[in-house]
Please model this.
Amino acid sequence: MALLGAQLVFTLVTVSIIQKLSPHYSFSRWLLCSTGLIRYLYPTNDELRQLAGVPKEKTKSKRNNKDKKYDRNGGGAEQFSQTKETFHVPKNINLELQSAKITSLDVVHLRYYPEYQWLLDYALYSLVVYTLTEVYSSFIPLDHEINLSMLWCLVVQCFTLKILFTLTLEYFKGEESVGERSTVIVTGFAYLVIAMMVLIVDEAKLETGLHSAYSSFNASAATFLHNQGLNSEGPASKIIINFCIAVWCALIGALFTFPGLRMARMHWDSLKYCGDRILLKLILNISFITPFVLMILWIKPVARYYLTSRVFSGMDAPLLTEAGFDSARLVLIVVLILQRLALMPIYLQAYLNMAYARIEEQRSEAGRITNVELQKKIAAVFYYLCVVTLQYVAPLLMCLFFTLMYKSLGDYSWLGMLDDDTCSINSTSPIIEEKSPLSDIPESQPMTLALDSLKLIFTTDVFRGIFGFATWWVSFAWFASSALGMVYLKYFANSK
Model:
């Protein structure tokens, strides 16, 4: 119990709340159903017949009753294949789509809704556990306790990766997904090359902390093995570690490809629907470049030097201390992610408006289209709403929880801007102390002994390097994919 302390209480209480509260209240369901999102209803067969002047076929009453049961709610694009009633209408048909507010009864049938609900709700509860742990640790340091909130954050990261992998795998299914497969594979190899280039950059320019993390891990692990009677200069090869990191970077870049392209499309449409609202356009543009701002914060000559070393004219000291810069960077990441989450309804509404845009674009085309194809074109937009939402939320959650783990395991402070003590990311704590902390622990506490042994190997510098680089790379891949999508849209928009 000493290894867990009050954190075990936080975890058990949160698990109990999840069991009792989840069936009645869901933050994810509130985001979709209580933020004013509007969906477009596809026209029924009778409406299309009346608009196109197509005579009604003689069918059995049972068939008509079954068609009425669809009632344009929920379901998916597959439901139209269940009816054999097919006829042609002009593409330029004068069709006015009806709209309706999204309700909880509509979203429960959507594809990937259970995954979306579980991921977002669990992430919220993880934030609660993390906040309680941070408040607790501010009064009682977690010297010989396991930080259970890190386990919650790690589970969120695993869920996010699993969902992104599942969504990306959808593009590899079917014979019509050749272009999507090629896009994912090409971008994955491109990110692999970029990651290899990044890993050889000097830390004086890009402060990833990986070089310091490797040196700390190798030296402390070699010391630990030596104390156990094993001779070793270090258990890990730097080339192998860098290659594994590059492969992980390529995987993240490949998984972020279509979420980035989707984000670019929604941003493009959101700006189009803003009209003359200049303030909203400004907010949306600031939100779009948020990952780029986060990426710049790790470039030392651009961010840390101007804020912590350079003294501007009329000032007696730099703007921030080293500790203040580290805290400001963490706080800024969280604020910008919350801003992107607050703008999610605007982006989702821009996506839902694609149904209306498709009909408007179709009116300029000549020829005819079947009623089933027309209905699918409209219904598919709402049917994939949860897929689009996951593509929007997953990079946010990954960046947010990497930041939280970076702060806690890297031994930073949220209030470093208010302190006068300096703490640089490149400063390394001594790996070997004159008196080993393990000598103060009785042999009757094997769990505490094992925990402190791991702390000797996985030092603060190791965690700073791992999670600092992970946070930076997620921001980079997030922005690069979105920027690529904007370039793609701008090229085709100008080519028309």
Remarks:
- The chain has a mean pLDDT of 81.
